[in-house]
Amino acid sequence: MIGITLMVVGVLAFVVGIIIFFYSKEKKEVTQNGHPLEKIIEIAVADGVLTSNERKIIQQVTTENNLDFNEVISEVENQISTLNTDSETELIDYNKKNGDDFEKFVVQKFDRRFFTIKEWAGDKYVNGNYAKTTPQPDILLEFSLKQKTVAFSVECKWRKSLYKNGIEFAKAEQFQRYKNFQDSMNIPVFVAIGIGGKGMLPERFYIIPLSETDNNYIHISKLNKYEKDIQSNFFFDMKTNELK
User: Fold this and answer.
1) Residues 133 and 66 both lie in one domain
2) Among 121, 207, 208, 237, which has the highest number of CB atoms less than 10 A from its own CB?
3) d(CA 63, CA 23)
4) Whether residue 57 sits in one domain with residue 96
5) Are the CB atoms for 218 and 166 separated by under 8 Å?
6) Which residues are paired to 237 by β-bridges?
7) Cα dihedral 80, 86, 87, 91 sign
8) pLDDT in tens, the chain (244 residues)
């Protein structure tokens, strides 16, 4: 009787061992061999910042592969903590610097012989209090040619990479404010978008009419229609009210 019991226990132990082995192997394969989860973790740790988008993607991948989301996040946070950096501050500083640099990059694309900057708004606010210019697009300009002048505005957004094959260039309420500004001022608004690289020199550059967007998210298929050569300056077509 004892022998049978030991045999049963041995079989159960063997089965459990097999299950653990294959689970461990699957988990290892998920985090190795170029799997997206490994790449995401590498990026987060390298930057010293675990962004909300990275957290969402990690949650999705761990769910799809039956992994412990909290365990993976804990490991990422532990690795980041060893870098001895203030991640939240670094993220704010990193995005702010690249955002400011991208605005400067865009401004330099306007030839001063034809374009005049009328306003260059800042995004400074606290507890819901902000300057009158903050809710409007970043830059208000005038284009002058042959004694004719046209006003328009440009909102500048730099993003490190695409998210879900596109970018969210503003919050929903910001997008609506830009629409309201365009309607109330009766001038065209354009969204200048830089992706990748640095704010001062993005890898890809786009200029999209706000009137061509239905919401605050733009898919890459639409972005590609408005890609602009990074080396070339802007020109405003008075006949079509297009910024090219």
Assistant:
1) no
2) 208
3) 14
4) no
5) yes
6) 242
7) negative
8) 555 554 544 544 544 454 444 444 444 444 444 456 776 677 666 656 667 677 778 888 888 888 888 888 878 777 776 765 555 555 556 778 888 899 999 999 999 999 999 998 755 444 444 444 456 898 999 999 988 999 999 999 999 888 888 899 888 888 999 999 999 999 999 999 999 999 999 999 999 999 999 999 999 999 999 999 999 999 999 999 999 9
Beta bridge partners of 81: none
Task: List, in sequence order, the alpha helices (H) in 122-208.
Answer: 172-185
Distance CA 214, CA 191 (A): 13
* Number of domains, the chain: 2
Q: CA 1, CA 18: separation in Å to the nearest integer?
A: 26
Amino acid type, 29: E
Indicate the pairing of strand 189-195 with strand 217-219.
Answer: unpaired
Q: Are residues 113 and 140 in the same domain?
A: yes
Query: Which residues make beta-bridge pairs with 242?
Result: 237
Looking at residue 115, what DSSP letter applies? E
Same structural domain, 104 and 219: yes
Q: Which of 143, 157, 175 is nearest to 241 (CA)?
A: 143
Which residue range is the domain that position 188 belongs to?
Answer: 90-243
DSSP 222-238: HHGGGB--TTSPP-EET
Instruction: Let me know: does 172 contact 154? Beta carbons within 8 Å.
Output: no
